[in-house]
Amino acid sequence: MELMNLLATSQNYIDVAVDGIGTIPLPWLGNIIKWLFDLFSGMPGAIALGAILFTLALKTIVLPLDIYSRVKMKKQSLIMKSMRPQMEKLQQQYANDKNMYSQKVMELQRANGMNPLSACLPTIVSLIIFMIVFSAFSQYSAYANLTQYNEMTKSYSAAVQEYVLKDSSTEDKYFLIAYGDDDNPVAYIEGSAQSNIKGYKVDFDKFARYYAANNENSAPFEEGAKEAVKNEKVISFVRLRAREAAAEYYTEHRKEQAFLWIGNVWYPDSMFNKEVPTFDKFRSQITRAAGNIAANYEESYNEVTANLTKQKDAFNGYFVLIILSIGFMFLQQFVSMRSQKDANELSSVDGSAARTNKMMMIIMPIIFGIFSFMYSAAFSIYMIINTVYSLLSTIIINKIVSVRFERNEEKQQLDKASNRAGRKRLK
Fold this sequence. Notes:
- This protein is mainly alpha-helical.
- It has helices spanning 2-9, 28-39, 46-61, 63-82, 84-93, 98-111, 120-161, 204-214, 227-257, 279-290, 298-304, 309-313, 320-339, 341-346, 352-374, 377-426, and strands at residues 176-179, 199-202.
- It has one domain (16-161, 250-415).
- The longest helix has 50 residues, at 377-426.
């Protein structure tokens, strides 16, 4: 009977639906990253912990390659140091002939068992790995933010469904009836996305009773209010609860994506970014990973995030990770340059190799700073841990190689002295 009265009252629909945006397929490395992050699910700073674990695991896997490369580089530097007197003579002799100098240096290096190219291949492999990881992190950042938004839309829609008639119940709470494209009621199916819903019709009598019971017996409408006014009141009421549900989902899961001063590690640690970005910035990140997103999603995005005004005004970070990325990379380049001092000074007749390396000591930190500024804080964490790991391994490996090289040099000197003494005794 109530359904018949409702149909007789109105043929208008109200629309309180919001749209999800699909998903982003992850590559194999993205799925590994997801698995690692899921290990810390529910923990504060889960994503940051996952990024740290991923970096340590990856660096440990490629550690033999790093050790080989750094051992070769350090040995070559020590060999160059031992050849310094000869190299300096060549620099004086061929000061005006760079090509001849390079040729003589290569002959001298081969004579001393040195192959400058032997350390290049591991470096190239490391660079390829870095770019693959960069791509995976960039794609996963978009995946994570899109997944969060879609889960918020589900919470929003679930809150709307709390008021939708599920059966023939006369309970006042169910004051919405879903209708499909054929103007027939849509049967409610638990857990269904109800994609065939065209809109909802309102039982105003039910709504008035439910509203009064939950708002100190106050009436939702003025007497004689027009149907359009009543519909707007119902929409406002339902949206208020739905927005709260979406915001509650965000708040409950925020601890996983936050890290110390950073609100969302899937956005840059920057005051130019907000914890919850505008639709344009949200779409920009998703578009980089999954292609263009239509602008008509903006209304849904703004509706789902309507109760996150505080997060929309909050800085996502304060450039801390950007500064650390630059600082640690500069330190790594400085240590590397110092360990290759003789090679840098003697590789070219005019010192151009040394100048190039000094330029790289400035350029590489700037590149890392740009990556940190433009991409996610999670990737910045990866770069920092990766750099610190490489820095410490470089220092340790250089020390071990230097000690062994010195011992070998001493042993060779002792063997030469012993051989000379033996020859004298024979005479």
